[in-house]
Design a protein that fits this description.
The chain is of the alpha/beta class. It is built from 20 helices and 19 strands. It binds ligand NAX and potassium ion. K(+) binds at residues 62, 137, 177.
Amino acid sequence: MYTLKSAAQMRQTDNTAMYGKYSIAPAVLMENAGRAVAERGGAYVGGWDGKDVLILCGKGNNGGDGFVIARHILAAGGRVYVYSFGTTAEYSEESKAHLHTLRMMCDNRTCTLTMYEGEKNDRLLYKRLAACDVLIDALLGTGFSGSLREPLARVVAAVNERAAAGGCTVIAVDMPTGVNTDTGAVSDDIKNDTSSPLMADLTVTFGSYKRGQFIYPGKACIGKLELDSIGLPPALLTENAEDNVYLLCEADITEIVTPRRADSHKGTHGTIGIVTGCGDMVGATLMTAHGAVRSGAGKVFLRVPGAAAPYCIGKEPEIMVRPVGGRDRLHFCRDDAAEIIAESKDWSVLVMGPGMGKDKELPGFIEAVAAETTCPLVLDADALNALRGKEADFFARHGGRTVITPHLLEFSRLSGLATAEIKTDLIGTVMKFVRDYAVTVVLKGAPSLIASAKTGNIYVNETGNAGMAAGGMGDVLSGIIAAMIAHDGIGSIAAAACAAVYLHGAAGDYCAGRIGPYGFTPDEVADAVPEVLALWDKRRPLTLLEKPYII
Ligand SMILES: NC(=O)C1=CN([C@@H]2O[C@H](COP(=O)(O)OP(=O)(O)OC[C@H]3O[C@@H](n4cnc5c(N)ncnc54)[C@H](O)[C@@H]3O)[C@@H](O)[C@H]2O)[C@@H](O)CC1
Ligand SMILES: [K+]
């Protein structure tokens, strides 16, 4: 699992490394950062020898890194043209020191340094841009916020234009200029602004990955992302902060979705109650159940309003379907709750929501069921819409055992915030929501975020693809979440939600690889779950017992 740091957390880490017990000299850290970009960038472009490299340096420490990079590229045989957008006086002491060294190396042939003073420098700058093989963006890093100001806005636009024409390779230092480190918002997100963020081919980032590198639209500006520790103490990089954000990796998930015990039985793998659907909508219901079956649930019970039952019975023999109410019953009503509550005593988890409709009795039914059941709840789609206006009370009573799985629009209704507002800080908004309501949230999207009610931690999931942007995928996910909650040995519902979201996305990636980039169905994604589990089993390291013991 990787920590995704905010700009403030990264600043804190750097400061502790330099001014705390480790006492790493600031110029040394900057040297390591610059050298890392020169080395990784060199590998990316096939070596610096004979290359013309334009290096744009801002007035903060990102710019200081640029002076170091120039020196190392020069040493590796490249020609460097450095533009500084700060004055000597504006630079930090370490940047000043590196600027001085670079200045001493300038020969106006292989190395030039221009202190940018305004439009009078533009003509030569654009000429250099038109002729360079590689552009190094050391303009702004973690210090950027808001919307790009001039002259950087026009310089970045020119760089993008040149790169889009296939003219040069663009390497960003730490962050591409114009991408917000915390939110992934970009320069032209800001109202009435057209200054675009820089589009990099490669970003070399320092110490820790940053949140904005994984959230769109910023994620689209990053290109290939490489992480370099720059010699920061590992203990500092993994240190817990108050608000922790992590990137899920396969190893985290295979650690919790462990292989089945050989002596297990169906009872070991949980009994899933799926109480959902309505008279004219059974597809979502069946896909939810199918997701649970394919994810290894021991037993799956499906309870649907009477009118929906004929369309569900026998579709999949392993799903035990029972109608609630008579044949003309289209929706659940409040009085049905007692029957479900009685049955739920044997259930490991209860799913409500997919395809449930919008009947006025629904909120009362869901509340009554929740009030008298004790098992974990997975609430999606119509169940979430039914909670509108009562969410604070509902989550206060049941949040600790509930996973909600809204997409952006559903989350907007629940939080009362406009989708555009949520998107300006996806992680921050979900973090606040979970702190306020103490409910585990799966916010579906690209990427999906999982927020733990217990710890407030946010987990970013990178599996999945655009082919999964299709109706029914979320229903399958609800079934997978339920199966993971029931999975033997998964410790918490947040862990189960992380496992399910990762698995669901990995199954979608498997389908995209086998079938094509889109057009595969939610049921095919569910069917791919066992295939992904089999792949994980193959990749899992041998345990001591499985290792050959006769040599
Ligand atoms: N010890 C450290 O703190 C280290 C920092 N390093 C580098 O330093 C960077 C952070 O340095 P800084 O905190 O100085 O920040 P930056 O260098 O990223 O930028 C700060 C400057 O950006 C300007 N700025 C902010 N928003 C702007 C906008 N919208 N339009 C135009 N200008 C804008 C500010 O006025 C400020 O002058 C990192 O990204 C990394 O590259 C590395 O050298 C490693 C060590
Ligand atoms: K940069």
